[in-house]
Amino acid sequence: xxxxxxxxxxxLTIRVVELTVIAxxxxxxxxELKFRYAHGAVAGVWPVHRLYTLPGLLNALDAAxxxxxxxxxxxxxxxxxxxxxxxxxxLVPVEHANRAEAILVPLAxxxxxx
Length: 114
Prior knowledge:
Oligomer: single chain
Distance between the termini: 36 Å
Shape: globular
Structural class: alpha+beta
Radius of gyration: 17 Å
Largest sheet: 3 strands, antiparallel
Helix content: 40-55%
């Protein structure tokens, strides 16, 4: 896609799907950078494969006072049907990682696999 846009001989073609994918990736990266800037070092504490459980997990962490960010949420939502095994990783500041995982284990139903 990038080569198609950069090639001087090619006509400029813009496809809605490609722009949507780019927009989702940019929103995910910008959100993660903002979260990392605000909270310093972060750790991935839980991979989420079932997107319908994500709001409940984030609400539980918020209720406990743990800031959390769902890495890849927009991209995964876009590809929900075609890439269902791409996880959304829940990121929290390193100092809250153990407590966050303790909150998420009972909600998710099993311990995180290594």
